[in-house]
């Protein structure tokens, strides 16, 4: 049976594609993939009114299948770890690689890490910008590098926070670890929660 029987037609496809930013072909692929999965699960066409709820269900199931707990570290977590060896931020960053969670990273977030962590005010005593870049390369080597094919912005007030939310959704991350938890209010609608480093440490400890 042709998969085209399960896909949205005409105006419905246009409406959904328009709500997923990032390029027509990528948006169409995403919409069609969700619709096809629904048809395989339930043997009927996905109602347009159920699209986003079912897309989130698919994302949650994908995250559950992932090895470990996928998570994103906001840049401010790395800054806090660089400035002090005391506190939850340093404990988390210093624990990598850690079997309890998988750090996820995009090209955009890695570029932000490099730009911020190499500033003189964020360098630990006796360390150089090249030292910081070397450590960030190590973190990147331990992270899951995620491509982002479609955008949700504007969703949060700050476009830089939208970048993290889009990465979290694409990589099936449950948490964004940040010192600015309030900036991610509303991200729960996409199945993502902002947690402080201390709260995320408690999550990890509760799983052992």
Gist of the model:
With about 210 residues, this protein is of the alpha/beta class. Helix content is about 50%, strand content about 10%.
Which strand order does the major sheet show? 3-2-1-4-5
Q: Averaging pLDDT over every residue, what do you get? A: 76
Count the DSSP helices: 9
Distance between the termini: 46 Å
From the helix content, strand content and strand pairing, which structural class follows?
alpha/beta
Number of DSSP E strands: 5
Share of β-strand residues: 5-15%
What can you tell me about this protein's structure?
The chain is an alpha/beta fold. It folds into two domains: 3-65, no CATH class; 69-207, Rossmann fold, CATH 3.40.50.1010. 52% of the residues lie in helices and 9% in strands. It contains nine helices and five strands, in the order H-H-H-E-H-H-E-H-H-E-H-E-E-H. The protein has helices at residues 10-19, 24-42, 51-65, 75-83, 88-94, 107-117, 129-142, 159-170, 197-207, and strands spanning 69-73, 101-105, 144-145, 175-177, 193-195. A five-stranded parallel β-sheet has the order 3-2-1-4-5, with helices on both faces. The radius of gyration is 19 Å and the shape is globular. It starts with 9 loop residues before the first helix and ends with a helix. Residues 1-27 and 63-67 have low confidence and may be disordered.
What are the defining features of this structure?
Rossmann fold, five-stranded parallel beta sheet, alpha/beta, disordered N terminus, 208 residues, 5 strands, 52% helix
